[in-house]
From TrEMBL:
Any single GO BP term: regulation of ribosomal protein gene transcription by RNA polymerase II
The organism's place on the tree of life at top rank: Eukaryota
GO cellular component, one term: cytoplasm
Described function: Regulatory subunit of casein kinase II/CK2. As part of the kinase complex regulates the basal catalytic activity of the alpha subunit a constitutively active serine/threonine-protein kinase that phosphorylates a large number of substrates containing acidic residues C-terminal to the phosphorylated serine or threonine.
One GO MF term attached to the UniProt entry: protein serine/threonine kinase inhibitor activity
SUPFAM superfamilies: Casein kinase II beta subunit
One protein family per Pfam: CK_II_beta
Subunit structure: Tetramer of two alpha and two beta subunits.
Segments of this protein annotated with the region Disordered: 1-26
InterPro entries from the UniProt entry: Casein_kin_II_reg-sub_N (IPR016149), Casein_kinase_II_beta-like (IPR035991), Casein_kinase_II_reg-sub (IPR000704)
Record family assignment: Belongs to the casein kinase 2 subunit beta family.
Name recorded for this polypeptide: Casein kinase II subunit beta
Length: 255
């Protein structure tokens, strides 16, 4: 009896992959990134934290900032993405660029106030733990994380500096893009407030200090004293020259 061959057509009963459907839906949907997210994602803005929009819209938190830019209300609306699109479309490229610059300035000044609040300090603590602000270049500080701070609270005076809680000294940021960030956007009080709020982050001060040697021998104390005296003499001469004292006549005294 001959064997009969029966072709069986298999029916595909597999269900479509849910993950692929979600991915297609995500790709097809439009995603508009918020201004704050765009600002924080730009290179050079890594030191900034995300400010709660409710904090930005609170009038009490904006006191004395109204005169820092023109059309202050419009700038705030632009930062929190509530500015009408029709207004933006009517702005010329020059005015739109100015609006963007004003938004960065206002965000920075509000940021200096926000980071000394409970929420702001907590946000900066997470960045500090991740060493987002860099580490101390001093060898005996053992890669101590740094804190950003300003030498002035008024914008336009100086760029941001980095404070080391270990050696208690200031350093310039390594990246040139951070050297253009205004120090007023972090303020003069942040580092002190941060260490006061989180005392567990205060490290032990290093006791080691580098001592220069020649072939394993420390420099003679008398030689160190002579160099110090010479340095003081040069400083004094420079000071006298700055106040217009002639050192070549009458022992430096004017006639």
């Amino acid at each position: 009896m001959a064997d009969e061959t029966v072709d069986v057509k298999m029916q595909d009963t597999s269900k479509p992959d849910v993950g692929e459907e979600l991915e297609r839906e995500t790709d097809s949907s439009e995603y508009v990134e918020m201004w704050i997210d765009l600002f924080l994602s730009r290179k050079g803005n890594e030191y900034f934290c995300d400010i709660d929009p409710d904090y930005i819209t609170d009038r009490f938190n904006l006191m004395n900032l109204q005169k820092t830019v023109t059309k202050f209300t419009q700038v705030i609306q632009y930062i929190i993405d509530e500015l009408d699109e029709s207004i933006l479309e009517k702005l010329s490229p020059t005015k739109l660029e100015q609006l963007e610059a004003d938004a960065r300035k206002v965000y920075g000044l509000v940021h200096a106030r926000y980071i000394i609040t409970i929420k702001g300090l907590q946000s900066m603590l997470e960045k500090y733990k991740d060493a987002d602000f860099g580490r101390c270049p001093r060898v005996y500080c053992n890669f101590q994380p740094l804190l950003p701070m300003g030498l002035y609270d008024v914008p336009g005076m100086d760029s941001v500096k980095l404070y080391c809680p270990s050696c208690e000294d200031l350093y310039l940021p390594k990246s040139s893009r951070h050297n253009t960030v205004d120090g007023a956007y972090f303020g003069t009080s942040f580092a002190g407030m941060f260490l006061h709020t989180f005392p567990e982050t205060v490290p032990k001060h290093p006791t080691k200090k580098y001592v220069p040697k020649i072939f394993g021998f420390e420099l003679h104390k008398q030689a160190q004293l002579a160099r110090w005296q010479e340095l003081q003499r040069l400083k004094l001469e420079k000071h006298l020259q700055e106040i217009d004292v002639d050192l070549s006549k009458n022992g430096g005294f004017k006639n």
